[in-house]
């Protein structure tokens, strides 16, 4: 698939949608027979994101034919209480 055929969107700040269209053609020859297949179709996947993600920093990269989506988390503020106060 080409990069133009895949869409990665964040909808509403809490849903990641991956969709696309697959278009390909496979040709094979077996002796005197010639076979040509044209598998095609669309796909759509939707993922619910947790509330602590940075939706403006989500990236999608094609690495050796595999779609890799990076979803960074927001840093949590942890309040530390000194042991002497307990």
TrEMBL record:
<dbReference type="Pfam" id="PF00011">
    <property type="entry name" value="HSP20"/>
</dbReference>
<dbReference type="InterPro" id="IPR002068">
    <property type="entry name" value="A-crystallin/Hsp20_dom"/>
</dbReference>
<keyword id="KW-0346">Stress response</keyword>
<feature type="domain" description="SHSP">
    <location>
        <begin position="1"/>
        <end position="86"/>
    </location>
</feature>
<dbReference type="InterPro" id="IPR031107">
    <property type="entry name" value="Small_HSP"/>
</dbReference>
<comment type="similarity">
    <text>Belongs to the small heat shock protein (HSP20) family.</text>
</comment>
<protein>
    <recommendedName>
        <fullName>SHSP domain-containing protein</fullName>
    </recommendedName>
</protein>
<dbReference type="InterPro" id="IPR008978">
    <property type="entry name" value="HSP20-like_chaperone"/>
</dbReference>
């Amino acid at each position: 698939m080409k990069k133009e055929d895949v869409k990665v969107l964040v909808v509403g700040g809490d849903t990641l949608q991956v969709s696309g269209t697959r278009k390909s053609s496979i040709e094979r020859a077996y002796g005197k027979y010639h076979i040509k297949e044209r598998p095609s179709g669309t796909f759509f996947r939707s993922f619910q994101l947790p509330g602590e993600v940075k939706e403006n920093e989500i990236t999608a990269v094609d690495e050796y034919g595999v779609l890799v989506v990076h979803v960074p988390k927001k840093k949590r503020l942890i309040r530390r209480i000194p042991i002497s106060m307990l």
